[in-house]
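In this supplementary section we document a worked example of the pipeline. Step one takes a protein sequence of length 343 as its only input; no multiple sequence alignment statistics are reported here. Step two produces a three-dimensional model, which step three serialises into C-alpha cells for compact storage. The input and output of this example are shown verbatim.
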Amino acid sequence: MFERELAVTAAAMVAPGKGILAIDESSGTIKKRFDTIGIESNVETRRAYRDLLITADGIAQFVSGMILYDETIKQSAQSGTPFPAAMKKTGILTGIKVDAGSKALAGAPGEQVTEGLDGLRERLAEYKKLGASFAKWRAVINIGKDIPSQYCIDVNMHALARYAALCQEAGIVPIVEPEVIMDGAHTLERCFDVTEHTLHALFSQLYQQRVRAEHLVLKASMVISGKECAQQAGVQQVADATVQCLKRTVPAAVPGIVFLSGGQTDELATAHLNAMNANGAALSWPLSFSYGRALQAPALKAWKGQPASVSAAQKALFHRAKLNSAACFGRYKAEMEREAAAA
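The serialised model returned by step three reads:
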C-alpha cells in the first residue's frame, strides 16, 4: 500500500552528502546535556533548544531528516509553526523515536532489552498524522564477560523486527538501530565478532517478520575498540573493520547505512566516516551519519541557553554538519577543524 512512499522516503533519507540529525534525547538525557552548560531543563528551554537546531539556516544542505522526541513533535517553532511543518518547508524529513528505552533484561545480569511495543501501532498512526515519515528504535548490546548472550541478541532483534514491520504497515520508514556499546575493555576484534553476530541475527529476524529491506535504513555502530581497551584501533583500522563487517551482513537491497557516534568525539566520528568513504571501494549502499551529540555538541556549547547566542549556535551546527557531509564523499580533512576554530 505504501511501497512507493516508503521507497521515496528511504532514498531521501540517505541522499548523497546528507545525514540525519538525532535530537530525540529523553527528558533525562537532555537534562544531563543542559547540566553541562548550567541551564534548567524544562518544557520551554527544551523547545527553544530544539527550535534553534530545526530552524538553522541552510542546514537542509547537509541534513535530510531529524529524529524528534514525543514532546518535540508536538511543539512549535518560535514563529508558531509546528516543528514538522517548519521542517517540511525546508525539505527536512520528520522522524520520531518510538521505543520506550532499554531496561534490565530478566535473568541476564548486565544485559538490556528495549521496550515500547505495546500500543505502537496506534502511536505510529498518530505520529503519521503529525507529519512523521520515518521512525527509530534502538537496541542496546553490551560487551563484557560472557555477554552478550544469545538470549539478549534474540529478544532485541525480534523486537526491532516487530517494530520495523509495524512501521512499514503504517507507511513509515523504520530506522533499525542495534547499537553495540563502546563501554568496556574489549578489543576491536571482539567488537567485530559481536557486531557481525548481531547484524546476522537482525536481518534474519527482519526477513522472518516480512520486513522489506528496500524500505528501511540501518543505523549502525562502528566496529571500534572499547573505551577502556589498552590498544585503541586507528582510524583506518576502524574504517576497514566496519566496512568488512557490513559487507558480510547487510543485504544489498538496504537503501543506506547511517552511523551513530556512540560516545566518540565530534572529530573522531567524522574522521572514521570519512575513512570509510575515502577508500574507493564499491559498496552496495551509501554510508552516512545519524549523529546526536557529535553534531550538537558545538551548538550546545555556543548557545548556553542565551537567546543572543542562537545565531552562533546555528553556525556551529551548520559547520559540523558540513564537515560530516564532506566525510560522506571522503573529502573531509583535519585542517577543516582548524579553519572552524579560526573562524
